[in-house]
Amino acid sequence: MSIPFLGEECFATAGTWASIPATMKPLIHLEGKVALVTGGSRGIGEAIARAYGLAGAEVAIASRKKQGVDEAAERLRKEGITVEPYACHAGKPAELDALVESVIKRFGRIDVLVNNAATNPHFGPMMTADEPAFDKTFEVNVKGYLHLARRVAGHLVDRGAPGSLVFVSSVVGLAAAPLQGIYGMTKAAVISMTRTLALELGPSRIRVNAIAPGLIETKFSQALVNNEDISRRILDRTPLGRVGQPDEIASAALYLASDAASFVTGHTLVVDGGMTIA
Ligand code: NAP
User: Fold this and answer.
1) 185/190 Cα distance (integer angstroms)
2) Across residues 72-85, what is the average pLDDT?
3) Which of 38, 73, 92, 132 is deepest in the core (most CB within 10 A)?
4) Long-range CB contacts for residues 261-265, cutoff 8 Å, separation at least 24
5) 61 phi-psi bin (left φ>0, alpha ψ -120 to 50, beta other)
6) Ligand 1: residues whose CB is within 6 Å?
7) Which run of H or E residues covers position 210?
8) What is the Cα–Cα distance from 215 to 271, expressed in whole angstroms?
9) Taking the model in full, what pTM does it have?
């Protein structure tokens, strides 16, 4: 029996997700779950929010700019997804605390966290990065991820509920990448954070996994995609020979959050068209 990738196929054949007997439901769904996705106003975060929503989750999305996150919520609602937008800076602990409180107030709980919002203010050699750029990159990409993970994991432990934390890292956390050294250090830290939190939270039935995307077509990667020299060099060593799309990261995030990955924790799933195998 083939397992439908998203709930959509079931909607098409059986009318509504709720009408499908529990025994027939595929493992890859998030029905009854509440998910919080940071950086959810566009790119990979919006694609993850969409995949989670179509798979049955109620979704909270957050990003700095209220207008951007409101517009994303509108797009998702038009697709039948239950979603609430929040303005929140991922590098500011007080705003992250307020975010968690607001989401719990609105939906009653959080079952799945996707730490996805990240920044890369210094595109250049590590030798030339100034301290403010260094601090900002670590504040958002490392301290912000850990702060939010701790808040959501604490909430899950208090409830005695199982949960799933998914951290968006990068292939540059696994291998050296020119001009992205500071950012790469933060993404390597995310992989380390994933493993240690998985170790610490496993006994509480909280799974923690990361995704390491290769080059994905978003606003964030525009400088790389539009730089012919860099993108040619990346594509030359990518067996699939193309840039990836946000949906291709969303499907990995859906798998990791769902019961299909019930015995997977501490793992970093590389989704890069094969770029890092050679
Ligand atoms: P994107 O399209 O630029 O989206 C970034 C999202 O994060 C937006 O919603 C943005 O909204 C939000 N954001 C940025 N800084 C924030 C902050 N300080 N606080 C809260 N929200 C913030 O980027 P993307 O490519 O989807 O990137 C998502 C994740 O994938 C990042 O972790 C990135 O490192 C990782 N990644 C991307 C690629 C790639 O090739 N695209 C490859 C590897 C890894 P606001 O501007 O409103 O805040």
Assistant:
1) 9
2) 98
3) 38
4) 261/164, 261/207, 261/209, 262/27, 262/207, 264/207, 264/209, 265/198, 265/202, 265/207, 265/208, 265/209
5) beta
6) 38-45, 63-65, 68, 89-91, 116-119, 140, 168, 170, 213, 215-216, 218-221
7) strand 206-213
8) 9
9) 0.93
Residue of 86, 145, 183, 255 with catalytic role: 183
183 carries an active-site annotation: yes
- Give the pLDDT confidence of 234-257 residue by residue, as tens digits: 999 999 999 999 999 999 999 999
Q: Quote the pLDDT of residue 20.
A: 65
Does the pLDDT of residue 23 top 60, yes or no?
yes
The radius of gyration computed from the CA coordinates of the chain, to the nearest angstrom, equals 18
Q: Counting Cβ atoms within 10 Å, is residue 263 exposed (0-12), middle (13-18) or buried (19+)?
A: exposed
The CA 3 to ligand 1 mean position distance, Å, reads: 30
Q: What is the pLDDT of residue 278?
A: 86
Question: Going from the N-terminus, what domains does the chain have, and what CATH number goes with each?
Answer: 26-271 (3.40.50.720)
The rounded Å distance from CA 168 to ligand 1 centre is 9
Summarize pLDDT for 85-132 with one digit per residue, the tens. 999 999 999 999 999 999 999 999 999 999 999 999 999 999 999 999
CB of 133 closer than 8 Å to CB of 61: no
H or E element at residue 160: none
- Which residues does 269 contact at the CB level (< 8 Å), separation at least 6? 209, 210, 211, 212, 252, 255, 256
